[in-house]
């Protein structure tokens, strides 16, 4: 079997074309969605992701502003900035780029963002509503993954989804979204004994481990759908996923590449959430 490649870059581009029309209508009605991105410190990867977010926003007509803070920023300074943004009616979405410098507690920061502006979908209120299946902001990478599956009409209901990774921003929420779609979900992680025994039973395999090419073809069931969330920079500068792509393509029915897979979808879903925030559509309370 040779797998079909789900190209996230192309799908994200299609979504941006649709969103541009939607935003243009909003602008005609006097509403220009606005996203504020907060970047603390000088992590080069974070800087590049933030640039990608600003570029994508501008492509669809969403305005954005970037607040850059030094690495030495205190928690209190960041809280004060977020409070100001929470109260600013001209700001519809607030995104604090992660990771943050070590003196700042990420969870405290996330919880300071007004749930109605939580376009990352990381606030406990957004997460809670996602768990109960209510309409809310969904975390962008898991939302992107579900959108990729749906773009190919891949059946989720009744399928066995195995997630490798249990982070708050990818592993846990993607499992919940798959469960909401009636998949049977198994979570695996760094302490899982005999990982292969689980992955070989997966109809849908989500790899979010952070280890280059760790998932070789012997981990994959024939015909499985393989979603690679890993972004690993090799010593030669090349970017690679958690899945050995050449092995997976021989065995899977669908596979996502790295780059041009899940990454660009993360940014596209952020734009979706920002439009939703501007329209005041997420029932997230205050
Ligand atoms: N506040 C947030 N912080 C972080 C998030 C997030 O969703 N919200 N996710 C990741 C990083 N991330 C977005 O912020 C992100 C990562 C990768 C890509 C992407 O498009 N990658 C490209 C390759 C880029 C490259 O060459 O380096 C690809 O896969 O094709 C987009 C967004 C952690 N932080």
Fold and architecture overview:
There is one protein chain. The protein is an alpha/beta fold. It folds into 2 domains: 29-114, Rossmann fold (3-Layer(aba) Sandwich); 140-264, Rossmann fold. It has helices at 8-28, 44-60, 75-87, 106-112, 124-131, 140-151, 171-180, 195-199, 245-251, 262-278, and strands at 4-5, 34-40, 63-69, 93-96, 160-164, 184-188, 204-207, 225-228, 232-233, 239-240, 254-255. The protein has a 6-stranded parallel β-sheet, with helices on both faces. Strand 9 and strand 10 form a beta hairpin. Helix 6 crosses helix 7 and helix 6 packs across helix 10. It is globular. The N and C termini lie far apart (50 Å). 45% of the residues are buried. The structure holds ligand LMY7XDAE. This is Bifunctional protein FolD. GO terms for molecular function: methenyltetrahydrofolate cyclohydrolase activity; methylenetetrahydrofolate dehydrogenase (NADP+) activity. Residues 6-120 form the Tetrahydrofolate dehydrogenase/cyclohydrolase catalytic domain. Pathway: One-carbon metabolism; tetrahydrofolate interconversion.
